[in-house]
Design a protein that fits this description.
Length: about 350
């Protein structure tokens, strides 16, 4: 197996120069750097990442903590994070906090003990211990998908990356209202999550835009899970004046809502119109095909990596919150013909 000394001899440089090329610890002339890289390629030299981490205090690894990895949305985010990490020469350590604040704190500590250079975390509904731990240990972190209200002017700098939620949800509601629906229900997510509160806000904005009155009886929480959404949808259907249209706030809850509708012998869209937040690979295989808001999942993951690397390069830079636009995918579960894809603008701050 080739060593650094072998590379140095082949390139006609010192071992120290090879080390500087590998670790970026000192500028090296372009032609010298290329000679080192060519020698590494010719000899088949593989750097010792463990030894390099001792020199640079960097492990070139990123910790990723997201719940419900089996959820297609987070699976695609994971793919985006992995692609971004590999592109920049980083490995990935993955943990599932299970949306449990206590377990979240434990897995974050375990990732930190593995000396990851930084973390990408989708926080739970109660992220106080998470934020306190990351802030106390000054861990470079990007909060993913779910935003956290951080103290203004605090020393903790967390960047945040997500998709727009309120605007796209309002578009689903106004679309249904435009089809003549006046009782539009929402199966909302887990209370405490920013995605839940923002989509509820978008729902109310959509009703207001359409000139409809908000009715709290038409809002139920499915807790972001299929089973919870099934029960919540059943409760809506038992109302004296049940909804004529339904919006679900994530893909898992869409499955639960469909199960409840089938259990009540209801047909979509003949008996009730349905729109959902989150598109997924098999959404157009249902009959009818599901009208949905598609989030740019892989782009969110890849952007989170770039933002984290920016933070590692400049620890004192101002914190940033980046929102990516979603896409309105018009199929037939809303009760009208399919339409071309249209983007819903997000915001970047």
């Amino acid at each position: 197996m080739a060593t650094m000394a072998d590379v140095a001899r082949s390139a006609g440089v010192s071992v120290a120069t090879v080390s500087h090329v590998l670790n970026g610890t000192r500028p090296v002339l372009p032609h010298t750097r290329q000679a080192v890289l060519d020698a590494m390629d010719e000899l088949g030299y593989t750097p010792n990442t463990l030894a390099r981490s001792l020199v640079t205090s960097r492990t070139r690894s990123i910790g990723l903590a997201v719940s419900a990895i089996s959820n297609p949305y987070f699976t695609e985010i994971l793919q985006g994070v992995e692609a971004g990490a590999v592109e920049h020469g980083y490995s990935l350590l993955i943990a599932d906090p299970h949306d449990d604040p206590e377990h979240e704190r434990k897995v974050i500590q375990l990732l930190h003990e593995r000396r990851v250079d930084g973390m990408i975390v989708a926080p739970s509904a109660d992220p106080r211990e998470l934020v306190a731990y990351l802030g106390r240990h000054k861990v470079p972190t990007v909060l993913l998908d779910r935003l956290v209200d951080l103290p203004a002017g605090g020393s903790t700098r967390f960047d945040q990356v997500c998709a727009d939620s309120a605007g796209p949800m309002a578009q689903l509601v106004t679309h249904l209202a435009g089809l003549g629906h006046r009782r539009i229900a929402l199966v909302a997510g887990l209370p405490g999550l920013s995605t839940t509160s923002e989509r509820l806000s978008g729902y109310r904005d959509g009703l207001s835009t359409a000139g409809l009155v908000y009715d709290e009886r038409l809002v139920v929480h499915g807790d972001s899970e299929s089973a919870g959404a099934e029960q919540a949808t059943a409760a809506l259907l038992s109302l004296a004046s049940p909804p004529t249209a339904l919006v679900t706030a994530n893909n898992a809850m869409t499955i639960g809502a469909l199960r409840a509708l089938r259990g009540h012998g209801m047909s979509v869209p003949d008996d009730i119109a349905l729109c959902c937040f989150d598109d997924f690979a098999w959404a157009d295989l249902f009959s009818p095909r599901l009208t949905a808001i598609a989030q740019p999942s892989r782009d969110i993951g890849a952007l989170a990596v770039r933002v984290l690397l920016d933070r590692l390069a400049a620890p004192d830079r101002p914190a940033r919150t980046k929102r990516l636009p979603c896409t309105f995918v018009h199929r037939t579960s809303c009760g009208c013909p399919e339409q071309p894809l249209t983007s819903v603008k997000g915001t970047v701050s």
